[in-house]
Amino acid sequence: MSVTAARGFEAAGVACGIKDDGRADLALVATADRRPVPAAGVFTVNLATAPPVVVTRAHLHATGGQAAAVVLNSANANAATGDPGRADAEETCALVADRLGCRGEEVLVCSTGLIGIPLPMAAIRAGVPAVTGALSAGGAADAARAILTTDTTAKEVAVSGAGFTVGGMAKGAAMLAPHMATMLAVLTTDAAASPAELDAALHAGVADSFNALSIDGCCSTNDTVLLLASGLAGPVGHAELTAAVVEACADLAGQMAADAEGATKVVRVVVTGAASPDDASRVARRIADSQLCKCSWYGADPYWGRVVSEAGSAGAAFDPERVSVAYGGVTVCAGGVAAPHDAAALTEVMARRNLEIAVDLGLGQGAGSILTNDLTHGYVDENMRTS
Amino acid sequence: MSVTAARGFEAAGVACGIKDDGRADLALVATADRRPVPAAGVFTVNLATAPPVVVTRAHLHATGGQAAAVVLNSANANAATGDPGRADAEETCALVADRLGCRGEEVLVCSTGLIGIPLPMAAIRAGVPAVTGALSAGGAADAARAILTTDTTAKEVAVSGAGFTVGGMAKGAAMLAPHMATMLAVLTTDAAASPAELDAALHAGVADSFNALSIDGCCSTNDTVLLLASGLAGPVGHAELTAAVVEACADLAGQMAADAEGATKVVRVVVTGAASPDDASRVARRIADSQLCKCSWYGADPYWGRVVSEAGSAGAAFDPERVSVAYGGVTVCAGGVAAPHDAAALTEVMARRNLEIAVDLGLGQGAGSILTNDLTHGYVDENMRTS
What we know:
2 copies of one chain form a homodimer. In chain A, 34% of the residues lie in helices and 26% in strands. The first copy, chain A, is of the alpha+beta class and 387 residues long. Chain A has 2 domains: 2-258, L-amino peptidase D-ALA esterase/amidase; 266-383, Roll (Ubiquitin-like (UB roll)).
């Protein structure tokens, strides 16, 4: 069900020929009655913004936050494609709008895949009638599959609130699947909410999930998270809606981390005792993005010296004599120096697929965490060539 | 000759047993007459500063920039070792001073290797008489070998100025050799210069060499570059001295990049047309530190989309429609979109061991460059386990 779990939405996914192996590559999510509903979006902060992001932002702005559909293609990012790329993104929206009977600016568009290659519009033009014709309440799984690139599994979620539902689908994580870059997510709810309320709930959801997920520290040209609200479940408290959106986003982010390219471990870096929450996040991200730390996790090597070194160079307040480090609850460094510990317990912890690394800076109350992965031979294999 | 190429210096390198395979691991550079001379240092900005860095800084401060010797050990960083680590670093200096007949604070100390393990002082105590006894003007090569960790070749340089010489030796590059972390370099000159003049020349040299070299974006606990001046060649113009120090540092940095762990390519990222020099450096470093770009260079894949994506997320002013990218002079992106190019020429360029990537942002006069490497299976192999 996922992106159609909330009442009032339909979805579909078809193969239109962008992928050369016949896998599905064009997805559509639309309101069941084809009328626009309140919508909000969060987008990449990369200044090399892809045309579909530019167009989707402009459409949300023009409509004051209303959308009837989201069309998504995989295998081509329509990024670094200039004015022709913007025209292609607009034409894609217009083609969908024409079929659905809404206005072009009520359609949002997302693309994911290789950068710098013109979108194959012949494939898109052939695919739009097929994907609009296939729309149904049962089409969520097809849609979720059609947005995948190097992902190995579809990522879907449905969260039940008190009388309402938040559902969604996603692909990749930031530059998790960089062959065909981009993290995309579409969420729907049947709660009644204004665009501003959706925007607030979505920003809260993204902050603790997608923005606390770092696969390789890169930031894509196409990252987009959208939330549409049909209103069929009636008004919902803001806190309840936000909680459900946060839960849905966190679930999808966890699925992304579990499916990261070439990864053998899902690692949560938890930083406490920082001088501020910002400092905690900065240290967690520095450790999560460190090639050296990532390689050591791959090797199940509890070499905490690298963790301390990264913490000390993160640009946050740091006192080398106050830092402690624990792997899966086994403290290996305390007061800045090696701590006696149970070697067998540490070996067992390091062998796990899910590893938690706790760093306490001993300075204050700031806390933060990042979900990430190890750096593996598989990652290098996947990313050394795009074709 | 290298670190003894300038008149007035001797050096030695011996095996004292820190490395378990019998390779040399203790080096010494000293003035020929064992008297202190003007000296300056540049150190890591990592706040997890290792005790030898703390001690060397304190000694230079106490003496007002005078040193008679530098003692260096490899295979143990004496980092994250707390008060005992500082006592060990001080004892090492005192042992050397006792043998040379100078004061302990006239001896500087550097360590490179694994973090978090107490320095094996029994080995150091046994090694100091051996290394002081071996000092000679012909000992430079032995000293250069004794500071290596995972480096495959010794790194030495001698630059001839007008009537004076700058020589030096180095190991590793930042976290280039992270098994046993740390970049160290000791430079000597026979030019006569005050500590302040040496400090200015050294900062200029480091800025355009070691600080423009990024292997994996990490910043070690022990990085140290020292410069001692015997004065035997008499006074030298500041510009001439600076030029020679810059040349020596750049040469050593190039040797480090050429010997980076697991690397198959040396890559220079040159950014022009930035809104400011700071912006140019930021963009160059972002590209150089990108796991995705590094993997693509390993695969000889000219996928410029990643370069543009990193440029757009570097925190610098950026206009996606003005950026151009060239690999080895072959322009692949112009005005933010794919540029027609000679595919055969591009393939030939991408296959080279030395690759230059030129990014022009089309915004202003800011320029900057970074020397770096590719990310390879060999890097993962070297760094997934410390033992």
